[in-house]
Amino acid sequence: MIVLGIETSCDETAAAVVTGDRRILSNIVLSQIEEHRPYAGVVPEIAARSHLDHADRLIGEAMAKAGIGWDALDGVAATGGPGLIGGVLVGLTTAKAIAMVRGLPLMAVNHLEGHALTPRLSDGIDFPYLLLLISGGHCQLLAVEGVGQYRRYGGTVDDAAGEAFDKTAALLNLGYPGGPAVQKAAGEGDANRFTLPRPMTQKPGCDFSFSGLKTAVRHTVAGLPDGVASARDAADIAAGFQQAVADVLANRSRHAIRRFRSEFPEGRHFVVAGGVAANSQIRAVLSAAVEEEGMHFTAPPLDLCTDNAAMIAWAGLERLRLGLTDGLNFAARPRWPLDPNANPSGKRVLGEAR
Ligand code: KG4
Ligand code: ZN
């Protein structure tokens, strides 16, 4: 089985071709970072226009690199949400056009399901497993029971972890995107010079909150002698911040592991995914905590952790195998929680669709 995947929900335009026996025939990602850098964040209109400019060409490249013709495809998958709606529309409409012209099944994939099923593509991990998804847009702990079967254990009530890194980098004038910049500065810093809070760690459950930590960084900078961080100050604050995030993630993950083991005694794997999983200090703290709790720690390779289309093609392929295809009238969804039962009131919980 061979599926083409298209991802356009945020600031990467991506196309990939993946097979049912877990081979990635092509995986092309075009980052828009340079276009958004002047604004220190993703501008939705710029993102949508850029997807429109590049999607067709990238899809052609992905097919050429895979070395297959359109007739070899068994289906086409695109992110159907959640995400920036203009961008989602570009990728989804393109996929619909291909599906219609080629008479192929369409799979409108939940972007979060793409992340959630990635360890099955990269490492062949069996259900059930526990997933910590930490990126610029997402921050949640999920039990992954099967395709379309997710139990959300917790999520952020305000900022995502990557968002906290990006905002902290901006406060410390370290540049954009913030995660790699904070990690680099932190490498030179003393994590113990400033004491930063570990929000939520005194509470039961698996929810996160990062906005207080960001505020603490702001107060710390304001409290410096002239209210501006020197390179030394920035490095020390970055190190303290990074350690605080790592401690919070480990604390919440331990709670999730205990719940997961009581609900799924056969589950052995804890998987971390998303751009923040690139952080070596966070990986080290998490993997130590996970092993101490008696589970196996897995992190898919970085290019499959950050946003990409191979994960969308793979999730589409898993859905296609089960006959879970979508009609050409599928409407793009700006918000689309993986576990609808996690929020029975139907009200939007901040960060939930992330
Ligand atoms: O998964 P991703 O590429 O895109 C989505 O947000 O979906 O994640 C990007 C996020 C950004 O917030 C970026 O600052 C963060 O991941 N990030 C990092 C590191 N590399 C990227 N955060 C901490 N340390 C890193 N080394
Ligand atoms: Zn993502």
Explain this structure to me?
With 354 residues, the protein is of the alpha/beta class. It has helices spanning 33-36, 44-66, 85-102, 111-122, 161-171, 178-186, 211-222, 231-263, 280-292, 302-305, 310-321; strands at 2-7, 12-19, 24-31, 75-81, 106-110, 129-134, 139-146, 149-155, 269-273, 296-298. The strands form two sheets. A five-stranded mixed beta sheet has the order 3-2-1-4-5, with helices on both faces. A five-stranded mixed beta sheet has the order 8-7-6-9-10, sandwiched between helices. Strand 2 and strand 3 form a beta hairpin. 5'-O-[(R)-(carboxyoxy)(hydroxy)phosphoryl]adenosine binds at residues 10, 135-137, 162, 165-166, 177-180, 183, 274-276, 278-279, 306-307.
Compact summary:
With about 350 residues, this protein is an alpha/beta fold. Helices cover about 45% and strands about 20% of the residues.
